[in-house]
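User:
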Amino acid sequence: MKSKSVWNRSTMLTRVMIAFVLLAVGASAVAQSNQTPTSSNDGNGQRCSNRTLNGSYGYSSNGQVLPAPGLSFPFTSTGIATFDGNGNVSWIEHTVIGGAQQGADWTSSTSGTYTVNSNCTATAVVVTPNSPVPLNLFFSLVQQGKQLYSVVNGNAITGVWTRLN
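Assistant: Predicted structure:
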């Protein structure tokens, strides 16, 4: 009889241990799947939002302004942009188009709005005295928003933006 009792306890203990092992393996798999990059993560398991784009960024942009078919002017610009984490941006810029400085040495009345998608892409519409029309920018956020890559829609202008703070 004693042998049967030991056997029952041993069987019960084995079943409990198997259940704990299965639970531990399942929890580990769930934790790993939550850390695996997907199309809605920035590659580091982080989802992006307007809050991801927050702080001051130094930028450099260059390319070609395309005002009409068959017409292009070299473009370069540098500046400091401040994103507020709530969808608003302002910046100071120095822009040269076709070899001619645009505006004052530093143009500071540039402002606009932006939207960051959960997959770490973003768009912005900004108004600057250096353009007759609002600029439509498309961004990709990398390194958890520490750096951005941009393109200005309708022109051949790209930029790199690096967080300062």
